[in-house]
Amino acid sequence: MNKHAELVVIGGGLVGLVTALAATSQGVHAILLDRAARPKAGPAEGWDSRIYAITPGNAEWLDKLGVWSRIPSSRICPIDRMAVWGDSAEDQLQFNAEDISAAQLGFIVENAALQQALLEALDDAAVDMRFEATCANVRLSDEAATLTLENGEKINADLLVAADGGASWVRQQAGIGSEKYVYAQQGLVANFETTLPHGNIARQWLNKDGILAWLPLPGNRISIVWSTEGAKELLALDAADLAARVAEAGQHVLGTLRLITPAAVFPLVKQAAHALVAPHLALVGDAAHQVHPLAGQGVNLGFRDVISLMQSLTRRHALQGWGDIHLLRHYERSRKTDMVSLQGLTHGLQLLFASEHPLLKRLRNQGMRLVDSSTLKKPLIQHAII
After folding, report:
1. Which of 66, 91, 234, 246 has the smallest number of Cβ neighbours within 10 A?
2. 189 and 266 in contact (C-beta within 8 Å)?
3. Residues of the chain with CATH 3.50.50.60
């Protein structure tokens, strides 16, 4: 006899975990499956090199789900201001929380800390989470999504949510294609101690060498993301030389740096699924879209997917199932504008600042100065903190 669930989530990353939790909070019977082992808590003294800039809107939502308060305050760093430089020190754009009467522009949180907070909340809610559970087959019909696990177990789901990353197995099984662009640049991530306080300021440099972001961590620490074609060469440097290169690229604004976590490199991809839904199926997070990390909005975009999906499910009437295609089409329409606009913005900025054409260089730097001194800046900040 097949097991039945109203909603099954495939993928135990941040977006998958929060999908299962948000659904459970709305009274939906959810099961979460992931082929990897359950993540272990990170070391209390160590710092995760995978960090996220969480918008105030998403932080408030996570708080309502009972997640945010589980993260130790000593592991959260607020962002009060953001400074962006172009090709020279004179070409600077600044965003301040006080410009829009907001308490913060966002919060820097480590992946491991947020992941553990989600797992604790799911445990307390007694959600059925199955790690090291590999799916062998998925079949979508007019009645349900039927999953067959490698151990032979079958699960019928009213709604299957694919949160299994950019190379989504579920998306492929459903026959949904995607448009993919692989950047010549790669991303280098690492954490450093600084000799000068960062002042809760997120800093970013956009120039021909790539895009370098310095994100504040609690104390005199920063996490960096450097999107550059020279990422692998930087990875090969010893700790002292890498710290010196990063400090130089950041104009030594925080003094001398010391590497405190091993550096790592990851590929940069822009990808969009041709469809976000099918009968009894919805794609969320990287399974639905991937963006360049220059705006730090990837996980926020995924969280907004989940918020929109849950809002769409509340429109369900008594005769509709959770996987009704009309409900899911509402979710798909609600996400298109956010997804397309953010992908277009990040991709366009990356191409613009990668160019060495004199006219484009002049235009991009004049544009930064114009935005910094115009009424455009306030709505840009308001949109970024949703």
Report:
1. 66
2. yes
3. 3-65+112-180+269-351
- C-alpha–C-alpha distance, residues 203 and 209, integer Å: 16
pLDDT in tens, 141-172: 989 999 999 999 999 999 999 999 999 999 99
> How far is Cα of residue 377 from the mean position of the Cα atoms in its chain?
23
Give tens-digit pLDDT for 91-134. Answer: 677 778 777 677 899 999 999 999 999 999 999 999 999 999 99
Give 340's pLDDT tier (boundaries 50, 70, 90): low
3-10 and 145-149 strand pairing: unpaired
Q: Domain spanning 80-106+194-268+355-384: which superfamily?
A: D-Amino Acid Oxidase, subunit A, domain 2 (3.30.9.10)
- CA angle, 379 then 385 then 386, to 5°: 95
Cα–Cα distances in angstroms (integers) from residue 292 to residues 47, 182, 208, 227, in the given order? 23, 10, 16, 9
**Gap between the Cα atoms of 163 and 135, Å rounded:** 14
- Could you tell me what percent of the chain has a pLDDT over 70? 84
Q: From CA 24, how far away is CA 127, in angstroms rounded?
A: 7
Vertex 288 angle, CA 385 and 68, to 5°: 40
What pTM does this model have? 0.89
Q: Quick one: average pLDDT of 184-205?
A: 95
The CATH code of domain 3-65+112-180+269-351 reads 3.50.50.60
Distance CA 24, CA 122 (A): 9
Outline where DSSP puts E strands in the chain: 3-10, 30-34, 51-54, 76-79, 81-85, 92-96, 106-110, 128-131, 135-140, 145-149, 154-162, 178-194, 201-207, 210-217, 221-228, 257-259, 264-273, 277-278, 281-283, 289-290
pLDDT of residue 150: 95
Which residues, in sequence order, are CB contacts of 185 under 8 Å at separation 6+?
Answer: 210, 211, 227, 228, 229, 231, 268, 350, 354
In the sheet where 51-54 sits, what is the strand order?
Answer: 51-54, 106-110, 76-79
For residue 89, the model assigns a pLDDT of 61
Residue 277's Cβ-count burial label (10 Å; 0-12, 13-18, 19+) is buried
Domain with CATH 3.30.9.10 in the chain: 80-106+194-268+355-384
Over 80: is that where the pLDDT of 355 sits?
no
